[in-house]
Write a structure and sequence with these properties.
The chain is about 35% helix and about 25% strand. The protein contains 17 helices and 17 strands. It has two domains: about 15-85 and about 390-450, Roll (Urease, subunit C, domain 1), CATH 2.30.40; about 85-380, TIM Barrel (Alpha-Beta Barrel), CATH 3.20.20.140. Helix 5 (about 155-165) packs parallel to helix 6 (about 190-205) and helix 14 crosses helix 17. With about 450 residues, it is α/β, with parallel strands linked by helices. The chain binds guanine (GUN) and zinc ion (ZN). Zinc ion binds near residues 90, 92 and 283. Pathway: Purine metabolism; guanine degradation; xanthine from guanine: step 1/1.
C-alpha cells in the first residue's frame, strides 16, 4: 500500500543534515537524442547519493564514497532503481475529476466536459480540495515538478499554489486567460486578465520554489487584444513563463486560421503577440509545419509532447524526430495533459510516446523516453540548473522505482541488478511499458520522504 507522509508538510524535513542513500542510480548528463548512451547515461549499479540541506552534495559508487560518510546513517534501497523525480510539462489540475470522459475530440470535448467542470473552481474551498488530491496523486506517481493549468479563476491559482507550497514542490502554474468562445461563467476580459495575472505574479512568482506561467488557454479562446496583453505581461515580468496549447487538432487549426486570417499560421498568431521565447511552453504541436518547428528552435521555445492525450482525443501522432532534429533542435518534455490525457503517470506517458513513435516507423529508446521524463523536461522548463539529474547543487527531488512492483514485473525482471547499459536498457524498458504508480516505491522532495510503499 502506498502511504502519503502528510506529516512532512509541517516538518522541517529538509533542514540541515547530511543524508545518504544506497541503491542503483540512473540519471542523464547529456541528451541521448544527440549523443551516445555512453555519453548521456550515468548509471551506478551500487551507488551512494549524499545530500546536504535538501540538495545533492555528491554521487558516486558506494565503494568510493562510503569511507567519507562513516558517521551518517545510510538509507538503503536494495533491488530498487533511484532516478530524478519525473517532470510533467503540461497538465490541468482542475481536470483530474473528468479524466476518461467519453467519445469526443478536442473542441466538443472542451464544451461538453471541460468547461462545465472548470466552472466549479470559482469556489476556492473546492479548488483547494482538488489541488490536494491532484498533488498527492502526482507524488504517488513519482512526479515532483509540473507545469500546470489552473482555471480562469484567481482563486484556483491561490488554492493550487498554497497546496504546492505546503508540499515544498518546485512547480509552475498560472491563471487561464480566456475572453471569447467559452461560456460566460468561464471568461475574463483582456483588462481583468491583465490585472489578475499581474497580482498573481506578484504574489506567487519565486515564492519559495513556486514559479508563474502566463497562461492564455489557446488562440481560439483569446482575442488578439488579450494575446497582446499576455505579451505585455511577459515584457513586464521577463522571467515568468508562457504556457499555452498549439496545433493539437485539425479542426482547431482550421478555426484558428479563420479567426486570425492575417497570420501566417498558428504559431505566428502567438509570435505576433510576443509569446514565442525561450520560456514558452507549447502543449501538443501535433500539426506544426516544418517552418513552425524551425521557428520554435530559433526561439529556443519548448513543446510538451502529450501522447496519452493525443491518442485519447484522436488528435494525431506527434513528430518527435522532427522536434529532436539535429539541425533545428526543439526542447521537448512529456506532458500527461490530464484530463485530456489518461494517466497521471509519466511512466505510462513514456509508454504511449514509444508507441506513437512505433506507429510512425520511428524508435524511441528506453533511455530517450526517460530522458524526456527527467532532464529533458527540466530543460524544456529552463530548470536544468535546479532539477533533472543528480549533479551536485541540484535540489534533491527523486523517485525510488521498484522493477519488481507486481508479480508479472517480478517474473519479467527476475535477473539480478543490471551491470551493463544493455541490461539496464531492458530493465528500464519494462518499467516504462509495464510500470505505473505501483512501480513508485517512494518519492522524495528536497531529500525528505513524502510517499512510500510498505
Ligand atoms: N486546448 C485548449 N484547452 C485545452 C484543454 O483543456 N485540453 C487540451 N488537451 N487541449 C486544449
Ligand atoms: Zn492541455
Amino acid at each position: 500500500m502506498q502511504r502519503l507522509y502528510t506529516d512532512y508538510i509541517h516538518q522541517r524535513f529538509f533542514m540541515s543534515s547530511l543524508k545518504a542513500f544506497r541503491s542503483s542510480f540512473l540519471d542523464f548528463i547529456a541528451d541521448p537524442f544527440y549523443v551516445s548512451e555512453l555519453e548521456s547515461v550515468r548509471y551506478i549499479p551500487d551507488g551512494l547519493l549524499v545530500l546536504e540541506d535538501g540538495k545533492i552534495k555528491e554521487i558516486g559508487t558506494y565503494d568510493s564514497l562510503q569511507h567519507k560518510y562513516k558517521e551518517i546513517s545510510i538509507t538503503a534501497y536494495p533491488g530498487m532503481l533511484i532516478m530524478p523525480g519525473f517532470i510533467d510539462t503540461h497538465v490541468h489540475f482542475p481536470q483530474l475529476e473528468m479524466i476518461a470522459s467519453y467519445g469526443e475530440q478536442l473542441l466538443t470535448w472542451l464544451n461538453k466536459y471541460t468547461f462545465p467542470t472548470e466552472g466549479k473552481f470559482k469556489d476556492k474551498t473546492y479548488a483547494q480540495k482538488v489541488a490536494a488530491i491532484f498533488l498527492d496523486e502526482l507524488l504517488k506517481n513519482g512526479t515532483t515538478t509540473a507545469l500546470v493549468f489552473a482555471t480562469v479563476h484567481p482563486e484556483s491559482v491561490d488554492a493550487f499554489f498554497e497546496e504546492a507550497n505546503r508540499r515544498h514542490l518546485r512547480t509552475i502554474a498560472g491563471k487561464v486567460m480566456m475572453d471569447r468562445n467559452a461560456p460566460d461563467f468561464l471568461t475574463d476580459t483582456a483588462e481583468t486578465s491583465y490585472q489578475e495575472t499581474k497580482a498573481l505574479i506578484q504574489k506567487w512568482h519565486k515564492k519559495d520554489r513556486l514559479l508563474y506561467a502566463v497562461t492564455p488557454r489557446f488562440a481560439i479562446t483569446s482575442t488578439n487584444e488579450q494575446l497582446q496583453i499576455a505579451g505585455r505581461l511577459l515584457q513586464e515580468f521577463p522571467d515568468v513563463y508562457l504556457h499555452t496549447h498549439i496545433s493539437e487538432n485539425v479542426d482547431e487549426v482550421a478555426f484558428v486560421k479563420q479567426l486570425f486570417p492575417e497570420s501566417q499560421g498558428y504559431l505566428d498568431v502567438y509570435d505576433r503577440a510576443g509569446l514565442v521565447g525561450d520560456r514558452s511552453v507549447f502543449a501538443h504541436g501535433v500539426h506544426l509545419t516544418d517552418a513552425e518547428f524551425h521557428r520554435l528552435s530559433q526561439a529556443n521555445a519548448a513543446i510538451a509532447f502529450c501522447p496519452t492525450s493525443n491518442l485519447f482525443l484522436g488528435s494525431g501522432l506527434f513528430r518527435i524526430e522532427t522536434a529532436k532534429s539535429k539541425d533545428y533542435p526543439v526542447k521537448v518534455g512529456l506532458g500527461t495533459d490530464v484530463g485530456g490525457g489518461t494517466s497521471v503517470s509519466l511512466l505510462q506517458t513514456a509508454n504511449e510516446a514509444y508507441k506513437i513513435a512505433q506507429l510512425r516507423q520511428q524508435k524511441l529508446s528506453p533511455f530517450q523516453t526517460l530522458f524526456l521524463a527527467t532532464l529533458g523536461g527540466a530543460k524544456a522548463l529552463n530548470l536544468e540548473a535546479k532539477i533533472g539529474n543528480f549533479n551536485p547543487g541540484k535540489e534533491a527531488d527523486f523517485v525510488v522505482l521498484d522493477p519488481r512492483a507486481t508479480p508479472l514485473m517480478a517474473f519479467r525482471n527476475s535477473d539480478a541488478t543490471p551491470t551493463s547499459l544493455e541490461e539496464l536498457a531492458e530493465r528500464i524498458f519494462t518499467l516504462v511499458i509495464m510500470g505505473d504508480d505501483r512501480a513508485i516505491h517512494a518519492t522524495y522532495i528536497m531529500g525528505g520522504l513524502v510517499m512510500g510503499n510498505g
